[in-house]
Amino acid sequence: MTVYLDNSATTKPCEEAIVAINRMITENFGNPSSLHFLGISAMKEVINARESIAKKLDCEKDEIYFTSGGTESNNLAILGAAHKNRRKGNRIVTTAIEHESVMQSIDELEKEGFEVIRLMPDSEGKISLADMAKAINKDTILVSMMYINNEVGSILPVEKIKKLVTRAESPALVHIDCVQAFGKVDIRPKKLGADLLTITAHKIHGPKGTGALYIRKGVNILPRTFGGEQEKKIRPGTEASPLIAGFGAAVDALPNLKEQSKITKELNEYAKEKLSQINGIIFNSGDDASPYIINIYVPTFMRSQTVLQELSANYGICVSNGSACAKGKKSHVLTAMKLSDEIIDKSIRISFSRDNTKEDIDKLCVALDEIIKKHPKN
Q: Catalytic: which of 14, 178, 325, 365?
């Protein structure tokens, strides 16, 4: 039986999402922009999904723009905001531990001549408020930061960004990547002070291929694609109505956040207790990291990729060694945290969802203990 502990990469679609997608593909297959009854019916499903997401974020439905996922939302937010506001300043503030879709978008802006400040984390992946305050000035036009780090689970002080922007008398827009936070913590863009906010479906038991960008009413960004009236020209193109309906269904199926957080925290504590009993295991995630993610060093002579393969092939256990989008490259997050090459090369990420149980943890720990004893470090 498969033990799936790679939920930060993607989650198993819930039954509600699957039903919604199937209904849209087989019955309600019209183009949402068509004016006949099938098109109107499909558009109603898109509207319903938009309303579900807006309700969960406590914002207006007109502030939700559908995209193909978190990567596109991040690209659209960052590039669209920077190019729209480049006459107001030239500085962009971010961190060295962002998702690749943020890092590479900002790398491109740096090539265009924008000044980029990349804040460095401490050894647990935390970002200093003092460093943030020092970096944001009157020339800053964008601050982009993730809520929860996808590799070690560190929680970044995103709720402080807007205050620092105001204090600095900066024109900066605030973009928060909430891909790992949405559906796990209570997210309200207005309370966070977010102008732009990224979410995606497949991290909350919805389908891959759809996500959304929150754009605060009154904020203007430039589009990245052209060719239609959809999404108010911010993201034109025929809406992926089956996926969007699945997204909305997944949002509606989210459990009570407080109850689920309590359950996940208990599972996290159980996992840490069991893992700590294995000789040589080191925790890279801090004690106050998100309970959904645990990053550990595995003391064996094998690199993390080989440990993953052995867990998968011999034990039916799925974990990861970092961001799935990195395709196995050396973790830039652990590197930025200034961990040793030994730890960086031999660390894995365990990530939970509401589907996981203590039995999953027990099987993982048995497997890791056997692997370490079979392939010791020295």
A: 325
